[in-house]
Amino acid sequence: MMSTIILLLVLGIEVGLVIYSLKTNVMQNRFKPIVRLATFGLFALLLVFQVIQWGFQWIPLFLVLLIEAVLSGFYLVRNSPTPEKPLKIKRAILISLGHCLFLTVVLVPALIFPQFEALPVTGTYPVQTESHTLTDPTRIESYDDTGSYRNVTIQFWYPEKQQENETYPLILFSHGSFGFRGSNYSTFMELASHGYVVGSIDHTYHAFFTKQTDDKMIFVDTNFMNDAIAIQSQTGKYNEQETYELTHRWLKLRSEDMNLVLNAILENVKKERASEVYTIIDPERIGLLGHSLGGATAADLGRKRMDIDAVIVLDGTMLGEEIDYVDNQVILNQEPYPTPLLDIFNEEHFAEASAAGENYGNMKATKHAVDARQVVFVGAGHLNFTDLPLFSPVLAGMLGTGNIDSRYCLETMNEVVLNYFDYYLKDSGGLKIKAVY
Fold it and tell me: What are the TM regions of this chain, as residue ranges (predicted)?
């Protein structure tokens, strides 16, 4: 909303200038610089009083207005008043239209990523954050040809310790295809504010971008992105067996990433001189959480490791339940899923899963699990289980959201996630989770 108001404001100023020039029939060479200076001053005041929340999306407009203000100041200082030149109407209109178009382009980042009010946290713990980049000496990076070992970055959100020797449960998160470690920031903040250490993993080359602790930026692998889109969109590029093989390669990579991170955390917990975040982790209380392909990763590790106490899958297909492909058919795991499992669906996904029944990994695992529940959000789309609809409603709408209110969906999902982990990792209270929201 604010970005739209600013766009209308700067365009209104530009249109007002050309109308005033047409009305007076002169170029207004001294009046225009004064208006440019005033426009920059107004923008600066909006920033100072935090009407506009400073962010990367405002940088292009700030620089343009600053440059125009500086040039206008030089013009006013260096040029003494002279009689105004007669207006060339066609030229004046074309220049104004060009400037309006330029300002619109400059404001595109603010329109795509509008400022928004962050979801409030309901816990009492102040939240801190820090990042670590880990190297896996057992794996060569398959997405480049340098022969280097695979690096994985994790960011922690964790509570400020209130008492000496106080420890908190650990939650590890895995993002979806070309997501990134901050994709569920509101969820991490909510959990951390209630006394959880949350670690979110950047799956290098699967994340839209990864910023390592050495400041190196790594962007998503384009082949991975194109393949993921092709499979998601069912373009026919890959047949069923090829899809099985490709998605399971991705799952293996991500599960090894999560395994690397978890093992590194548990090793650091044992050390006497470890980073602060490791000193407050309770290694006996561990939960896994993931969205989409990240949900498949969390579920896969939840089956394989005995030290996991609870798993939540956010609208993901549990690919790990598909253990083979034989005679043009996916073979599902017959062994009961061993870890408490919560499977959260959007409405369309749940309808498709229900229609497939036990031929679909999620439904098979849930029915035969030692402890499993399912939750459906009516009207939600796939991206409604991330913060993207808040961060960029335009992009989220293009990639897949439903007609549910985005804030309601996130707030309610975060309540469900918190309640579930409280029940299994803190033994606090009862489960207050409905089947449908």
Answer: 6-22, 34-52, 58-77, 89-112
